[in-house]
Amino acid sequence: MAKSKGSIIVDREKCKGCEICVLACPTGVISLAREVNSKGYHFSYMENPDACTGCTNCAIVCPDGVITVYRKKVST
Amino acid sequence: MADRTGINDIVKDENLVYKKTSVLTDRVMHYCPGCGHGTAHRLIAEVIEEMGIQADTIGITPVGCSVLMYNYLDIDMQEAAHGRAPAVATAIKRLMPDKFVFTYQGDGDLAAIGTAETIHACNRGENIAIFFINNGIYGMTGGQMAPTTLSGMKSSTSPYGRDVQMMGNPLKMTELVAQLPGTWYVTRQAVHTPASVRKAKKAIRQAFENQKLKKGLSLVEIVSNCNSGWKMSPVEANKWMVENMFPFYPPGDIKLEGRLTGKE
Fold it and tell me: Which of A47, B103, B146, B175 has its CA 20 to 30 A from that of B165?
């Protein structure tokens, strides 16, 4: 069965750490980093990258548009 | 094996599925973390890009948090005096009827000081789109009570909650203008979850498409959060919005193609 694998790139300096993408992710990929960016926000990152399906839910709810999504079909 | 596909194999230009639209500038927005304004700006920018009308769109910015919207959208924009955006949009649309004209207003701008301009622009049936962001508070000036503040809702000028006996009832501006014959499309949306964002984008697209029909005004209300004004975290604010704002301001279409849907 064809399956999708995805990956996100977060613009760390523009992320404000609002956590809305963390809740929007259906597979629990995203969480907030312990480190902060230059403005002091805990930016989001892929904690569990293997589970990402590239559904774009995180990117379309991001108020600051900092998430870029890539998706590739892979066969299992 | 699927699990051996590394991130470097996925992050390639041919696999790109979502990227911030180029109609939005690269400037960092000044909004608080989690504010719905950013999402609403992005949806408008995406619709403009999809329709290919970047050179033919004129936006009118309000007074309020979104007063600096002209810094974030790479289109022609005009600043209006507080509440007067529908009047400015009327003039621009009448002088340049082929352009797509929209106003972007908060509840303090549209439902308080701009009530007269809004109602008369809707009643005249100007062929413009109004995007109305309703968070029930004056966000920029420090969270004061707005006409849309819910009954019992705390704000900096109603610290014990809004008392309707003394302060009046909350105003449902969207239902009000839906009664007017000049409106063609009136809807209420939200931008707090992926599903609601997709629906809101369709509504915004519809509002732009309706300008080609020249049948009347389109108003899209977006119920949004104000986590700084409500003194909550962004996630708590969205939850509070679903529990408290949605019973009074239910999302859904109120007027489609000039006919009331019965939800008003």
Answer: B175
